[in-house]
Design a protein that fits this description.
With 168 residues, the chain is α/β, with parallel strands linked by helices. Helices cover 36% and strands 13% of the residues. The two termini are 23 Å apart.
């Protein structure tokens, strides 16, 4: 299910404040459970970039964690653009669910070595899938001979296989 953030629905470019994004993410997870008929604790929460980040934040919330079967992070933004010192991994020790990172090997917001190191903080099982030559938007280098569609299909195939592996 694709959710539209409130700022996008209003036609704004700048993201809403974290409390609004948190609320919107929780509402989308609730709606997904209702529409699919899947209990919330059987859902895999996740998304691309900020969407995945907020899914991980609500699942690892100290006061009111959202139930989940697993977390799928597509291009997790480990730090804001140009600010590698501002890590977005403080909540990782509270992540106890299986988690898959699907990231590009050229992702400037989560370089491979940095994301791998930060993921060591995660309490649950962690898997990685690295998209060769892809950047944060999954765009591959032209010299690779791959298209954006190729990379997105690879990310989708890996994600589906991983989610199916959780269904025990």
């Amino acid at each position: 299910m694709r959710s539209k953030w409130p700022y996008r629905a209003a036609g704004r470019r700048a993201p809403d404040r974290p409390p609004v994004l948190d609320s919107a993410t929780r509402a989308a997870a609730t709606e997904l459970a209702q529409r699919s008929g899947v209990p919330p604790e059987r859902l895999v929460l996740g998304g691309r970039s900020m969407g995945g980040r907020f899914c991980s934040l609500i699942a690892a919330d100290e006061g009111d964690p959202a139930p989940a079967l697993g977390l799928l992070m597509l291009g997790y933004p480990l730090h804001p653009a140009g600010k590698p010192e501002r890590r977005r991994d403080d909540h990782f020790p509270r992540v106890t669910w299986p988690l898959l990172f699907v990231s590009g090997t050229r992702d400037a917001l989560a370089p491979q070595a940095e994301l791998t190191k930060s993921a060591e903080k995660i309490a649950g099982p962690v898997s990685f899938h690295w998209l060769e030559t892809a950047d944060h938007g999954y765009r591959p280098l032209k010299a690779s001979g791959r298209t954006l569609e190729d990379v997105v299909q690879e990310a989708a195939d890996v994600s589906v296989a991983w989610v199916k592996s959780l269904d025990t």
